[in-house]
Specification:
alpha+beta; NADH Oxidase; 9 strands
Amino acid sequence: MKWFSLIMMLVVATMAFAVTEAELSAKIETLYANSKFKEAAALVDQYIVDTGATVDLLYASASFHTLAGEKKPALTSLERSVDNGLIEIEWLSKDERFNPLHKDKRWKKILARIEAKRDSMISTLPETREEKDGIELPPPRLDSDVSVEKAMNQRRSVRGYKNEPLSLQDVSQILWSAYGVTQELAPDKLRGGLKTAPSAGALYPLEVYLAAWEVTGLEPGYYHYEPWGHKLYPVRLGDFRQELTEAGYSQEWILDAPASLVYSAVYSRNTVKYGDRGRERYVCMDLGHSGENVYLQAEALGMGTVAIGAFDDLRLRLSVRMTREEEPLYIMPLGRKESE
């Protein structure tokens, strides 16, 4: 039933039916409960005719047609979904509802089209990052009134934030806790120095971005954090919070937060020394170390965050404009806790 709830969420979120959302949901749920998949597909298809096609509606249509044993209209809806922007090939490939379509030539062509679209999108990402006009962040504080023990005891995953901006000092402290330099070296040694978070072999495979929507003193946009020198570099300016939220499968706390951290990794920094173990274990361990630092630092600042791993990798890479060698790992929304 989990997949059905997802489909209903997608359908209802994009429809403005004459009936209420509750009535529409009840209609389709009743049809599903009675295995009337053909009627459910017809309901969605009629809405598409009346109001226009979207990726989500076409995907829902294809799902119900497949369950009804109607392969041709199911494949047609999927083809139209690709025309309208479907690129989530992993999600599509693992969706067991479409298993009856896997031997059809049209199915294979659909996957090939998506792969080609994804390759084309990836080719638009920069190979390297050009960093200029860096923004110096305020120096981080090295002491506070909140003990480590108290921060650990009070730390929780927070999904509700006050509607107020963060200060540049706030984000400076958060970024430093995530990956700041604690023993400075030359920029070509250990990527600038030893950091607040431990790293296997001191290889530091992580990259950290700030998605700043409401940060005093910063123009809205994506910024890359450079630990050496404790600076931010603009990557893509503008308010892209809706885009980031959609990449994060519409989790509303991403939209509500005045800022977010976005983590990525360059796996080759680890695999060159540790092989597959570097990719499969050590990068994940490094991410956990850094993410927990952010949780504790946020608590000490009266802020909250939550580690999000559910997102569409390609859409997130495109939104942030990561380099081609980076793979996204985390979104961590940041804001003042509602309960404070």
